[in-house]
Amino acid sequence: MGPDYKAAGPGRNRTRIRPQPPEHGKLKRPAIVPRKGWRFNDAMAAAALLDPSKFRDPVLTARGERRAHVVPTALETLWFNTGTLCNVTCENCYIESSPRNDRLVYLTAADVALYLDEIERERLGTREIGFTGGEPFMNPEMPAMMAAALERGYRVLVLTNAMRPMMRRTDALTALQREHGARLTMRVSLDHHTKGGHEAMRGPRSWAPALKGIGWLVTNGFTLHIASRQPPDESEAEARAHFARLFAEIGAPVDARDPRTLVLFPEMDARLDVPEITEQCWGILKRDPASVMCATSRMVVKRKGAARPSVVACTLLPYDKPFDLGPSLAGALRRPVALNHPHCARFCVLGGASCSA
Ligand code: SF4
After folding, report:
1. How many Å apart are CA 167 and CA 213, to the nearest integer?
2. Cα(355)–Cα(265) distance, rounded to whole angstroms?
3. Which atom of ligand 1 is nearest to the CA of 345?
4. C-alpha angle with apex 339: 104 to 55, nearest 5 degrees?
């Protein structure tokens, strides 16, 4: 039996993982305080807090081994973070988007054009432009930014919750779809295959507007992908089977078996313990560093109060200073990235996830 999402209730108070002070020099497990009716799988209940000696040094791990690095090989995908404001506040949002978080302010179409110019000037060979937020359609210049990328011939991937902010832009979106539809993909976040599971993450009354937005995208011929979280109480095969049933029910032409069209992200919690990734890990895990997201992509962000945007290593670490690689793409592509964050280990190397289409 899985989690009872209805009993768990909506939003941020669904569970609390309360760090406890270390005792007798030992790392303690977090005290997991479920609300009535909430059930955890064993792995979650057994999770320990991150050892504070880990992820300190970009060169060496806590055990003194050489930390893994990723050398950029190309800029296949350039992401733009359009700003962290969002119309909803989701449980455990990795970027903490909300109606109040403007730590990353709105990019403008002029900002985007400068980076597209740099791609061309430096012949970076980029094929795909991604837009993420926050909710990208909160940004008033979102249709202009999409148009700038599409008109220059890029494939464009937009991450959206398909709710009201997107539905306010249907005229502009219809025009872009008509003109450039073959190169445009809309990836909609649906946090669970049930209304209860989705609303436990995204808040009450978030399911019907998302399905309405998905319905509009399908009816108007957009290429649709779905992004979700891997439910902790299901295997990946079970989750995909549940999504397949949902897609059939709502008439969404999405192949739930295809990890590209239904992306299931592992849960990201930087407070929980995870092994550090050493140079030896590539061979042991049979992973090619070139397959990790920061080998082939970067993201442009604009911090509140900053004079101009900067380029960060990836979509997952927009706030962490060591992952800020400066204002230019060319400069950002000269710098290897030290895998010095729990997300590098859990999400990219051990979880094997990618944010691209
Ligand atoms: S989180 Fe992943 S993509 Fe980002 S820097 Fe770490 S390994 Fe690279």
Report:
1. 7
2. 9
3. 7
4. 90
240 vs 257: CA distance, rounded Å: 6
Cα–Cα distance for residue pair 356/128, rounded to 1 Å = 9
| Atom number of ligand 1 nearest to Cα 314 | 4
**316, 321, 324: residue to mutate for ligand 1 pocket, most atoms within 8 A of CB:** 316
Residue 292 CB–ligand 1 contact under 6 Å: yes
pTM: 0.85
From first to last of its 357 residues, the chain has per-residue pLDDT tens of: 333 332 222 233 333 333 332 222 233 333 333 333 333 344 444 468 999 999 999 999 999 999 999 999 999 999 999 999 999 998 878 888 999 999 999 999 999 999 999 999 999 999 999 999 999 999 999 999 999 999 999 999 999 999 999 999 999 999 999 999 999 999 999 999 999 999 999 999 999 999 999 999 999 999 999 999 999 899 999 999 999 999 999 999 999 999 999 999 887 777 888 999 999 999 999 999 999 999 999 999 999 999 999 999 999 999 999 999 999 999 999 999 999 999 999 889 987 555 555
Per-domain residue ranges of the chain: 69-350
* CATH topology classification for 69-350: TIM Barrel (3.20.20)
Give the tokens for residue 229. 């979280």
Question: Is 325 a pocket residue for ligand 1 (Cβ < 6 Å)?
Answer: no
Q: Does residue 314 line the site of ligand 1, with CB under 6 A?
A: yes
Instruction: Write out the two tokens for 192.
Output: 């669970």
Shortest-distance Cα residue to atom 1 of ligand 1: 344
